[in-house]
Write a structure and sequence with these properties.
With about 210 residues, this protein is of the alpha/beta class. The protein has seven helices and nine strands, in the order αβββαβαββαβαβαβα. Pfam families: Radical_SAM.
């Protein structure tokens, strides 16, 4: 990457774009709604069960002008979901401004491990044990989505729920490869603790991105 491009990336005017696509939101509060997804490369949180490990190395994904990203998104939907990787590794201010100029609703899916930048209509916080969210993200989160891989993750989920605001929606979601094993446990837990809602990766059942 040459110096000029590197400078634009550091300012959030270009971002390492892994992929962008129009589909149905498969998870959490907005499940079932059409949205344009923008997946930003780069992540050092390192979840061993991550299903998009190819997103981790930002150098593998071409720096792309945010105006082009926003222009492409506006052709498909009035809702855009920025995900990763970990998008907050980059300055999200310019990208969200570009989306807002086009009248879009702007959502983010984040581990919360980095400073919250950007202007968001919906913040989905999916915390990870090995790199916990910053306090600012807990406060701003609209949705808490905890991935359940084993029983200890239920304990972790309760710890995280204590840190978000009172209006934050609480979701438990089975890790896909363990879904048959952990789903009965999640169902029992949600029935005993009805503040929690069960989230499924319905896009995988529908065989869509």
């Amino acid at each position: 990457m040459d110096k000029a491009v590197s400078n634009l990336v550091s300012k959030g005017m270009m971002l390492p774009l892994m992929e962008a696509f129009y589909t149905i939101q498969g998870e959490g509060y907005h499940k079932g709604r059409a949205a344009y997804f923008v997946r930003i490369g780069g992540c050092d949180v390192g979840c061993h069960w991550c299903d998009v490990k190819e997103s981790w190395n930002a150098k593998l994904h071409p720096p792309t002008a945010i105006d082009q990203i926003a222009e492409d998104a506006a052709h498909y939907s009035n809702t855009v979901v920025v995900t990763g990787g970990e998008p907050l590794m980059w300055d999200m201010g310019p990208l969200t401004a570009a989306f807002k100029e086009k009248g879009m609703q702007v959502h983010i899916e984040t581990s919360g491990a980095y400073t919250l930048t950007g202007n968001w209509d919906w913040i989905c916080l999916s915390p990870k044990k090995n790199k916990l969210p910053l306090e600012q993200v807990y406060i701003e989160a609209d949705e808490l989505k905890v991935i359940i891989y084993n029983r200890d993750d239920l304990r972790f989920a309760e710890e995280q729920a204590e840190r978000v605001g009172p209006s934050c929606k609480l979701f438990l979601q089975p890790e896909w490869s363990k879904r048959e094993k952990v789903m009965p446990m999640i169902v029992d837990y949600a029935m005993a603790n009805p503040k929690w809602i069960v989230s499924l990766q319905t896009h995988k059942y529908l065989n869509i991105p």
